[in-house]
């Protein structure tokens, strides 16, 4: 499933993983190495996440939340990143 602001970077054969070098200067965060977590059974995941915390920090997240709240009910929120 697609999620706004998230880019899947998971191709072990090509040695493609979420890394600071590739996530820097981008608003989207990279996610990869997604696996089931045996401790939490069907309700748990293990994953790597990497993002540029100076670019996409608390301030940008607060703006995105405010924009989502301002959307009319029932209209899907898709931030312009």
Please describe what this structure looks like.
Helices cover about 20% and strands about 20% of the residues. The chain starts with 5 loop residues before the first strand and ends in an 11-residue tail after the last helix. With about 80 residues, it is of the alpha+beta class. A three-stranded mixed sheet has the order 1-2-3. The chain contains two helices and three strands, in the order βαββα. About 5% of the residues are buried.
Short précis:
With 81 residues, the protein is of the alpha+beta class. It is 21% helix and 21% strand.
Series of H and E elements: EHEEH
Terminal-residue CA separation: 18 Å
Query: What's the total count of β strands?
Result: 3
- Please give the order of strands in the largest beta sheet: 1-2-3
Regions with pLDDT < 50 over 5+ consecutive residues?
Answer: none
Q: Give the mean pLDDT.
A: 86
How many whole angstroms does the radius of gyration measure?
15 Å
Strand content: 15-25%
- Characterize the overall form: globular
- The SS-based structural class is alpha+beta
Helical coverage, percent range: 10-25%
- Enumerate how many helices there are, as a single number: 2
Largest sheet data: 3 strands, mixed
């Amino acid at each position: 499933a697609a999620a706004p602001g998230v880019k899947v970077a998971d191709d072990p054969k090509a040695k493609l993983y979420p890394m600071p070098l590739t996530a820097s200067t981008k608003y989207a965060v990279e996610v990869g190495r997604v696996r089931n977590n045996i401790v939490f059974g069907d309700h748990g995941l293990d994953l790597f996440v990497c993002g540029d915390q100076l670019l996409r920090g608390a301030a940008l997240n607060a703006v995105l939340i405010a924009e989502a709240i301002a959307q009319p009910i029932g209209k899907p929120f898709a931030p312009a990143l």
